[in-house]
Specification:
single chain, 7-stranded mixed sheet, 42% helix, disordered C terminus
Length: 542
Amino acid sequence: MGILNSIMLSLPLPQANSWTPSHRRHCRCFCLELMGLLDSNSPLSPSLVGEFKPLNPEEFRKQAHQMVDFIADYYNSIENHPVLSQVEPGYLRSRLPDAPPHLPESFDVIMTDVEKDIIPGMTHWLSPNFFAFFPATVSSAAFVGEMLCTAFNSVGFNWLACPAATELEMVVMDWLATMLKLPKSFMFSGTGGGVMQATSSEAILCTVIAARDRALATIGVESIGKLVVYASDQTHSTYKKACKLAGILPCNIRLLPTTQAENFSLSPALLRTVIEGDVAAGLVPTHLCATLGTTSTTAIDPIRPLADVANDYGLWVHVDAAYAGSACICPEFRHHLDGIELVDSLSLSPHKWLLSYLDCCCLWVKQPGQITRSLSTNPEYLKNKASESGSVVEYKDWQIGTGRKFKALRLWFVIRTYGVGNLQSHIRSDIRIAKLFESLVSSDPRFEIVTPRLFSLVCFRLKLNPSGTMEGLNRMLLDRVNSTGRVYMTHTIVGGIYTLRFAVGSTLMEEHHVVAAWKLIKEEADAMHSLDEGNGVRRMNC
């Protein structure tokens, strides 16, 4: 170490407090090159690194306390940051060294870089002024549950790998099914069961694979090119991706058109007509994905009549309720699941509305055997008495991958800490505040509601003379609002209409944040009021 110190002291370096990122980067690269000159067998090498203990309980205790303080301070001050990151692409590479450090860096130095380099590049999803996409909701209970999950580091691919992980997941899946009033046919206490996936994308892929294999068992694998799947043009884009991954020909993925007159829900009559045409052409209808709460507008596909049509032709019916399904724990919204007893599978994502942090998607299936027959693996190194007995659930056979976290801890902590009553109140509060925003929009004659509000998403737009360009006007309004850093919204195009989306539900959000957001939107609309015709946008009606 004395050799290294002597060399460093001989270098003409500026004072540490005046170092630029470039100074740090070049110094680190120099040190790395110097370390490369020291053979790994050199007696100098061990003294450079010191005794390596990656998990020292007391050091962990100290750093974990510091990290909790940092996180709490971040949550307290999150409104001080622009909601939408203001950095340019590639900003981080110029701030960080080109090569990794050869020597250890202190926790404090790393956390300084988090504040200096990482936070500016964050779009703050937990900001109370985040109204984009759908919320990714969080809670103290879920956070400490995740801490425990990470601490245990259980890789629960089968029952023996962690009996508690498997059995708690089974219990929690039945708990949530009970909260949703699902039939026993979807529960372990009945004839079905559930599994926690990472996202809806994985859940949907699993069901498409199971549906594919069920059909091919009848018609033969050589006929895979005949399989056809169905959804609406409002179904999440992941459906098309999942079907292609499962081997469905892109030309056999039917995304049926929806209309504003039917609030962009999938028409059972249209579905029957298209299926009949495919059957007449010698194709094999295989899978239908209905959606409860589409991404663009939270449109609701009618489950019962769609399932009636699909069941006439032997399709697997999956209901994607990623966002809006959580609302069905409230009795006043449970009717949106009417007919669920007729479908094969259902998924919803508690990380969107049930305060559980990413990632958490719950998938229930009526006949688990149809999933496990498609996804099961049984290598010799995983065989054990419990597995061979057939008396335990092997969750590796319910998902695409093998390894899995102890995710159920998070949802278990949430449900036990808050109780069903508080979770219902949380959802009702978000919907109440969304109604408030909807009323504010409706009270201003310059704006209009594009689609009926069903949950806590409001779809609206700024109006214009028929001779003007409404899309250009609303794009400009969205850009102006988001560029302030005070609010973040997103848009969609539905039925050819460019629409602004205002999604209420960030965990830290309160009513005054929504009122302030509306005030900002109006201010930006006011500033645009006298736009020049030469810019391609007509004056607005008042």
